Amino acid sequence: MRVVAAMSGGVDSAVAAALAVEAGHDVTGVHLALSPDRQQLRSGSRGCCSVEDSHDARRVADELGIPFYVWDLADRFREDVVEDFVAEYAAGRTPNPCLRCNEKIKFSAVLDRARALGFDAVVTGHHARLVDGELRRSVDAAKDQSYVLGVLTPQQLAHAVFPLGEMTKDRVRELAAERGYAVATKPDSHDICFIPDGDTRGFLTRRLGEQPGPVVDAATGATVGTHAGVHGFTVGQRRGLGVTAGDQRPRFVLGIEPVSRTVTIGTAEQAEVSEVVTAAPTWTGPVPELPFRGQVQVRAHGAAVPCEVTPADGGGLRITLGERQRGVAPGQSAVLYAPDALRGDRVLGQAAVSATA
């Protein structure tokens, strides 16, 4: 196959490109320039898409003897990922920018361009597996990225290659070291790539300004403080609330109301939910018949729990959780997996959380 290898400059994409070459594919390396100011986007393990990353990717491509290009997608990334991130927080929701980047950039903009140029597929360093066209979890549970790929369609998956899904991250680093790649020991990127200092609240405040409002304790009904903007909070948050409850029990964010600028907090018990209602879903394969039983994961680094999925108004889903969950925020993705008895590592699809109960 003629394939584009998306090369971020990290160890995963370097090894994925190398494995694609060794598998006999006709490989072209592509680095995505996603920021108009790439000099500022890396600090140790924070950020990505810097000039340093571009150079690291180019060095690996040179060692592999493959063509290498930089594709400037900064405008598309700003519109589809960064602006979406800001708008979602302003609306009181909690987006997942990595999922949105996979949906809108890596497997839409990049794949569309690659196909238009005559390539058959895009190779990435994601830790996930494709088995007979089905998206499944990586064998390395600690590094599994199937959650942020759950938004992909069958058509997109048909033109995707994930060479790392059958190995652990330690093995990926070993393969890079065996090949003499300098990125073998390069730290993984953490946090949100376009917020390299890790200060999400500060980033949003600079974009949205201060918008003070009350903090209300649902346990007592009392207003216990004020805040500088609802964009500084997410449902389930415990730290950084800036208030102290009279009974000294820990408090969590229960709800965010952007119109009245009210942040509601409550106890751990009040933060737990047993039901999730979503917007219309997308499926990675054939649309399953409702109702069905499966597993659901509601956070990128959370654990999957058993669930029952039934139809909801407006074409959405009602997901009844087999175990109560804390910190399920509107805007997050509820990614559905098959039941354990039916290959529970198989991704069925996903839907954005709209409400909880």
Automatic annotation (TrEMBL):
CDD domains xrefs: MnmA_TRMU-like (cd01998)
Subcellular location(s) per record: Cytoplasm
Chief location: cytoplasm
Enzyme class: transferase
Record-annotated tRNA-specific 2-thiouridylase MnmA-like central domain positions: 202-266
Stretches the record annotates as Interaction with tRNA: 143-145
Record's catalysed reaction(s): S-sulfanyl-L-cysteinyl-[protein] + uridine(34) in tRNA + AH2 + ATP = 2-thiouridine(34) in tRNA + L-cysteinyl-[protein] + A + AMP + diphosphate + H(+)
InterPro entries: MnmA-like, MnmA-like_C, MnmA-like_central, MnmA-like_central_sf, Rossmann-like_a/b/a_fold
Cellular component terms (Gene Ontology): cytoplasm
Entry EC no(s): 2.8.1.13
Function, in words: Catalyzes the 2-thiolation of uridine at the wobble position (U34) of tRNA, leading to the formation of s(2)U34.
Protein name in the entry: tRNA-specific 2-thiouridylase MnmA
Site positions (Interaction with tRNA): H126, Q332
GO molecular function: ATP binding; tRNA binding; tRNA-uridine 2-sulfurtransferase activity
Domain tRNA-specific 2-thiouridylase MnmA-like C-terminal: residue ranges: 277-351
Domain of life (superkingdom): Bacteria
NCBIfam families: PRK00143.1, trmU
